[in-house]
Design brief:
about 60 residues, N-terminal domain of TfIIb, 1 helix, three-stranded antiparallel β-sheet, two-stranded antiparallel ribbon
Length: about 60
């Protein structure tokens, strides 16, 4: 079941979550937990990592 959700997330060009609160907290697309995103200078953008399911994604 988790593999099926990860396949959905890895599809290109698909918007999974629209954050209307300017990156205060985001929702994990797999387990729906609230996560505080962080600035990642290597990617020059805001990213989020879920400690529960281990997924990492770009927010900006």
């Amino acid at each position: 079941m988790l593999k099926d959700k990860i396949k959905i997330i890895s599809q290109k060009g698909r918007i999974l979550h629209d954050n209307n609160y300017d990156h205060q907290t985001v929702e994990c697309p797999i387990c729906n937990r609230d996560i505080v995103p962080y600035w990642e200078s290597r990617y020059n953008g805001i990213r989020a990592t879920c400690d529960v399911c281990g997924i990492n994604w770009a927010e900006s």
